[in-house]
């Protein structure tokens, strides 16, 4: 029995649709790779309670002249290390694409400096706008010499991160804009002192 041309086209179309459906089903059976930046609150539970540890140190940036530049009142964040925060830190802080973190030169224009400030500010806002993470963050402020203290910290691994915005003296070579950071591992009841939180341009990091 011969098929009519219309029947052949219908049969071919049906076969193609069935093949596509089988391919899609096979692909769906393969699980997607885990997302390293996915928020997993279970990794953070231990950081919510009060602990008995403490951390103290100084936060500063290096100006173009090499001078250590501090900023009174600068916010310092103590951020628990998790898959989520590690992805943010590695991409936005450790490998930042923002303009130079050092002091501005006399030839640098005001719009360029503003762009740098906005870039680093955006980096910090990416973390702060996530309400799921806020209960696990600790924040303090630097005194006029850049010193800071955290108390009642549970044991764990942390990033200490601070954005210093246009800090420094009146001269261009005494100014600096950027993010200072440090990684910290704290044991139970440990009192960490003399921490150096800086922009890692020297061997201090």
Describe this structure in words.
It is built from three helices and nine strands. By secondary structure, the protein is of the alpha+beta class. It has a single domain (41-197), classed as Immunoglobulins (Immunoglobulin-like, Sandwich), CATH 2.60.40. It is globular and about 45 Å long.
Secondary-structure topology with pairs:
Blueprint: H1 5-28, E1 53-59, E2 61-62, E3 68-69, E4 75-80, H2 83-94, H3 110-128, E5 138-141, E6 147-153, E7 156-168, E8 175-186, E9 191-197
Parallel strand pairs: 1-9
Antiparallel strand pairs: 1-6, 2-3, 4-5, 4-7, 7-8
The largest sheet has its strands arranged as: 5-4-7-8
Order of helices and strands: HEEEEHHEEEEE
Number of domains: 1
Flag low-confidence runs.
Answer: 8-34, 101-110
Which fold name corresponds to the CATH topology?
Immunoglobulin-like
Termini gap: 83 Å
By CATH reckoning, the class would read Mainly Beta
CATH architecture: Sandwich
Number-wise, the strands total 9
What are the defining features of this structure?
205 residues, alpha+beta, Immunoglobulin-like, four-stranded antiparallel β-sheet, 27% helix, globular
Could you write a compact summary of the structure shown?
The chain has 205 residues and is α+β, with helices and mostly antiparallel strands. It has 3 helices and 9 strands. It has one domain: Immunoglobulins (Immunoglobulin-like).
């Amino acid at each position: 029995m011969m098929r009519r041309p219309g029947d052949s086209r219908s049969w071919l179309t049906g076969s193609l649709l069935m093949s596509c459906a089988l391919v899609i089903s096979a692909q769906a059976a393969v699980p997607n790779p885990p997302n390293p930046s996915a928020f997993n609150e279970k990794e953070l539970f231990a950081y919510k309670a009060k602990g008995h540890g403490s951390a103290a140190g100084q936060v500063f940036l290096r100006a173009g002249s090499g001078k250590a530049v501090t900023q009174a009142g600068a916010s310092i964040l103590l951020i628990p290390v998790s898959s989520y925060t590690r992805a943010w830190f590695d991409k936005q802080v450790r490998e930042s694409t923002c303009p130079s973190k050092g002091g501005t030169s006399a030839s640098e224009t005001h719009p360029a400096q503003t762009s740098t400030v906005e870039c680093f500010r955006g980096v910090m806002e990416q973390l702060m706008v996530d309400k799921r993470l806020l209960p696990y963050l600790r924040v303090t402020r630097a005194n006029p010499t850049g010193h800071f203290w955290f108390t009642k910290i549970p044991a764990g691994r942390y990033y200490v991160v601070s954005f210093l915005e246009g800090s420094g003296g009146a001269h261009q070579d005494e100014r600096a804009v950027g993010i200072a950071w440090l990684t910290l591992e704290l044991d139970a009841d440990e009192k960490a002192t003399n921490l150096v939180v800086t922009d890692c341009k020297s061997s201090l990091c």
